Amino acid sequence: MVLKLYYDLLSQPSRSLYILLKLSKIPFEQCLVSLAKGEQLTKEFAETKSIFQKIPFIHDGDFRLNESVAIVRYLSRQYTLDDKWYPKESKKQAKADEFLEWNHSNVRLNCSTYFIVKWRNPLISGKQPSEDRIKSLTKYMEKSLTDFENIFLTNGPYILGDNLSYVDIHAACEIEQTRVAGYDARNYSPKIKNWIEHVRSECNPVYDEAHKFINKLASMHGEENKSKL
Asked: Which is nearest to 195 in space by CA: 172, 224, 215, 211?
């Protein structure tokens, strides 16, 4: 049976796994889950798809697995995943894992929180956050972006050095998300801008395919801002 990926391209880790599977040419069935419709929140979904009721996740025959990082590690063992995406050599793999573990409570936490408070919550509730709240979230997010730049983009054009890997795709998808809420990290840091453009270039056309909806939402936000001028 072919591997099934359950995903929504509005989700950052969904995009990173989608890009990886496409580029690595691992055959997979695309199983779309609409976050906007709350398809993952039903009792039937929890019973038949994923008890976590979150995406992305995979079904590989009778085997089910959640969490994007766990999925990548599984793919590296179970399938012919090129070593460049997730290194097999112990020390290189440890450095990849170092970033993936650090990312949870830094870039992902702060970029996601900014996106949720600035864009998603107002979309649902119709209520805008206070200016002070946004300033505070921006401060924490930019601290994470500065740490990311100073810690992980110092040994070459990519996180692990000279070569693109899955951790770059994973990080770029997280950082791209804030564009929907009107914040583009490319404008915050020239180094981050250069790195994202390298990742995009090496992963295209799949990268742009995965970010088509994000790009559309970001463009809509830009048009809304222009209309207020």
From this structure: 172
